[in-house]
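Weekly puzzle thread! Below is a chain. First person to post its structure in token form gets bragging rights.
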Amino acid sequence: MKYFFRRGCWLPFLVLLLACSGKTQSREEAEAQNTKPNIIYILADDLGYGDLSCYGQTKFTTPHLDKMAAEGMRFTQHYAGSPVCAPSRAALMTGLHTGHTRVRGNYEVGPHGFGAGVALKPEDITVAEVLKKAGYKTGLVGKWGLGVAGTTGEPQQKGFDYMFGFLNQGHAHFHYPEYLYRNGQKVELPGNQNGKREQYAQDLFHQEALQFLDNNKNGQAPFFLYLALTVPHAEMLHPDDENLARFKGKFPEKPFVKKTQGKRIDDSLGTYNSSEMPHAAFAAMVTRLDAQVGQLLTHLKKLGLDKNTIVLFSSDNGPHKEAGADPVFFNSSGPLRGFKRDLYEGGIRVPLIVRWPGKIKAGSESNHISAFWDFMPTAAALAGTPSPATDGISFLPTLLGNTQDQQQHDNLYWEFHENKTSNQAVRQGDWKGIRHRPSGPLELYNLKTDLAEKNNVAEAHPEIVSRLETMLSKVRTPSEIWSLKDDRTSAPK
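Winning reply:
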């Protein structure tokens, strides 16, 4: 766990000390913090590692995100917090991996109903709370999933001054919802009542994000905007407009017909609506997202906020296969094995693009191994404020080109509980270990030579297997809800 401390009156002493030691990290971080930058974190939903053309997509293009990468830094070894939504977002917000964070799964059978999940508690400090304490105006637009209205986890209780969007993850399955929430209050959407589809949630979020920028353009305080979008997550629907028309008839289609969600037989939360053209809808959803990111960056420049705003773009997990989505057709995982709900690379390795004009070298690429839980200490370092204890390491030195002083993770850890048995994965250096139940054998892959995880080399490297198994036995803390499930033993804590 890492800590970051404000320099304060110790700054002259530290400058002298660092000058003598030859280190430059603190100098560069201090320079970056002279004026606290605005921070925008854009999170796509279920966008795969290979779904952007700058990461290899060939069936459609994403010119605006490609341009963002050309003007900033593209990461090639960045990891989501989990292969599914809620725990991944919890890792992003709290800086803790799924062996430590409170939310370790979607928890669809909780006391608040389907999709409500587990609420964060007061002791679960979020990045929004840290930045708000540092003087930032904080906003959340889009999908939350870490506490519904009236719980300790709703956004207003977790550091956000402003919120508009979905609180319940099941509710976020609908791109034409009948209502959303603004600051804890339900907002009816008249254009979506009685089966109408006139107000696309993605478009509403885009307009809210632009308005948030307008409301905070005066520079009286820096701002943090968490723009947590809901595309290209199912359902596979898109407005019937010119953008969709570009893809009609371009791909083979297999219509998706609405089904039930588990044992549910009504139209309750979670059931995905039918889609006549899921392939066209997917391409249109991603390209619409791309265009709106471009519009947001243009708006920043128009407001004069461009050079003092760092923008990060990523996805919460790998690509999904729901409601007619077809990640195989689009090669959404790129060269990686697996999809959403897998602990293979395709389920957890995600794009990360970061842009900060004048600070981040344009067109740069980083193979630094990083994860969602690194965002908390990175944001704290950007704001020049202490970070709570986390599993993360600030990657600000990498962003500023100071790679010689970038600290490295000893290991990264994930656990997943939605299968019959609990799955675990750990990465240490180039070695990746996966097991599909706590008492099961460890699969071992060398990601440097086998990125696609095709060759299990566990038998050839028993000493590495033993080391990673020991690590798996120590890396997590007990959870009242998410015990490790095993089909051979009673569930260990």
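Puzzle host: Confirmed. Bonus trivia for everyone else. The radius of gyration is 22 Å.
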